[in-house]
Write a structure and sequence with these properties.
With about 260 residues, the chain is α/β, with parallel strands linked by helices. It contains 12 helices and 11 strands. It is globular, with a radius of gyration of 20 Å. Helix 2 packs across helix 6 and helix 7 packs parallel to helix 12. Strand 6 and strand 7 form a beta hairpin.
């Protein structure tokens, strides 16, 4: 009996449901297409998802416990930030739920890929994906001639710190983050006056999000004070919203910017 139970646990899940944008993308990268039953509604939203086209082939869900239960999954993929009430209900219903942190470092990105590969019964695919990721990252990681001081600035006067995924991407591309100078290791609000007085060599912001309406919180990005500072809108929001290998595109864009600054 014990042997049979162990064998059953080793089998790859046949009906996988993801209720989070980031687990959606990891599942798309690692699962067999036949394993995926449903992805979150965000997965096919091109303003948020780096894999919207691939996700469009699958039914979507809104992450409600009753809805997920009716899909009869043998594995539910969720974030550690998913609704605690929903996760509790899924557990009470007897569903197998695996949760993943959003990932704020390259090591956490690697661990999520490994863990997802194990949960999906696809450890070799995970290992291959990691090997390809590390090879591409190494190719991008040429030692900088110098590390320009930069700010990662976004709507609501928010500055991303060195302990965020965005900050890790910027560091990998060869920049120093001025948020660290102000004790914002995890990020936080940086008034425009503080940004200007800090005099970063470049202010890095995201490219526009397609299909989104301009909000009042975004007005700071159009302030005349920023017009007198070097500005780089070079990273797509979709490339670093989740800890997936897509961050390589963000690193490549910022590395190109840094090399351009070195030549000037």
């Amino acid at each position: 009996m014990l042997a049979l139970v162990g064998a059953a646990q080793a089998e790859a899940p046949a009906r996988v449901v993801s209720m989070n944008l980031c687990t959606d993308q990891l599942a798309l990268l690692l699962a067999d297409p036949s394993q995926i039953v449903s992805l979150s509604y965000m997965a096919s939203d091109p303003s948020a998802s780096a894999m919207a086209e691939e996700a469009a082939a699958y039914p979507s869900n809104r992450g409600r416990a009753e809805e997920l239960y009716l899909l009869k999954p043998d594995l539910v993929l969720a974030s550690t930030f998913s609704s605690p009430g929903t996760l509790s209900m899924l557990n009470r219903l007897g569903l197998h739920v695996e949760t993943y942190p959003p990932g704020a470092t390259m090591d956490e990105l690697r661990q999520s890929i490994t863990d997802m590969g194990a949960a999906l019964g696809q450890p070799q695919r995970a290992a291959d994906l990691l090997a390809d990721f590390d090879a591409q990252l190494a190719a991008l990681s040429t030692p900088p001639l110098r590390r320009p001081r930069a700010a990662l600035y976004s709507e609501g006067s928010y500055a991303s710190g060195a302990r965020t995924l965005e900050g890790q991407v910027m560091q990998a591309a060869g920049f120093d983050n001025i948020a660290t100078e102000h004790g914002l290791d995890w990020g936080g609000r940086m008034p425009l006056e503080v940004l200007v007085m800090s005099a970063p060599e470049v202010v890095i912001t995201e490219t526009g999000r397609p299909g989104t309406k301009r909000a009042r919180a975004q007005a700071v990005l159009s302030h005349p004070a920023l017009a007198h500072m070097r500005r780089a809108d070079v990273v797509a929001h979709q490339d670093w919203i989740c800890a997936t290998p897509r961050v390589l595109d963000a690193i490549a864009a910022l590395t190109q910017l840094r090399r351009q600054m070195e030549r000037e």
